[in-house]
Every structure is written in structure tokens, then in C-alpha cells.
Amino acid sequence: FLYACGTMARFIIAPNASTNNVWATGLGAMYNAGEVSALYSPAYDLSSLVRPKVSFDQVAYMGVNDGVVLEFSTDTFNIADPLKNWYRIGTNANGNNWYNKSGLASSPGDQTDIGPPKITSGDFGWSTQLDTVLHSQHTLSPDLPGGLRTHVIFRFAMASLPADSSEGFAF
For the whole model, what pTM was predicted? Predict the structure, then answer.
């Protein structure tokens, strides 16, 4: 199941979406059990920004161990190349409305810090059964060091357990 852009048509998320044009893990159906998917941004040059941050409105209604994480990459490999490195932005201990769970069994994304130290655990993400739109924001420093900001790609990576399916994630 790939992310789709358009108008939400699902029972729980749709009435709470703040716009008619959202990206979601499916606009009219629940996400698949065992889902592993991602939505990728174009490449950005953020080198002229002193204190870059990311912010967006989001709503999630997911299985208790399913989740979505926001990651970035600074290398020039194709997004499908297994050599491409993805790094998690933040943890559930920082940012505003940033990740509401750690220890997600579905382990969305690569869950790696750019380091040092390089932490590859935590399994953070948005995983909730709230039907409320939240404004999430997080600074990109120090997660994204100044010298690595000339070619930045973001991805929302989603994963669910084989037995789980629910409304999903929209922003």
C-alpha cells in the first residue's frame, strides 16, 4: 500500500483532517497488515538555513505496535539502493508532538541516529489511536549537521505487524 494524496474518506481520520488535500496511508481504506512502505520527498538544499526545522499537521489511528517515523538521507544514492543511509529525526523525548511511542514491534524505518554515538535502537514513531490532528515540529539540528545539508531527502516510513491493520497516518 503506497501513500496517496487527496481527500480523506475514512471513518475516523476524515472528519478530523484539517484540509481536503492530505498525504495518507490510503485515502479510503485501512492500511494492510504487514505493511512496510514510505513516502519520499524531493531533494532539498538546506545549507543556507541556520536553524532548520520541520513542521506539519498529522493525525494517526494505528495499531498499538504499528508506526510511522520521519527520517532523512544526505547521500546521493537512489532511494531504492540498499547502500542509502536513512537517519531518524529525533526521539519521543524531544520536539513538539514528536513520536508518541518507543519500542514499536513493527520497527518503522531504519531507526538510526546520525551519531556519534550511533544509536540504532528505540523503534520510535507515531503510533496512537487518537482521532485528533496534532501540529508536530522538530528542529533538524543536531540530527542534520550543517555540513550535510546540501542534498537532503526526507521519508515518512511506515511499518505494521502481520496481524495489524487500522486507519493509518495522514499529514
Answer: 0.90
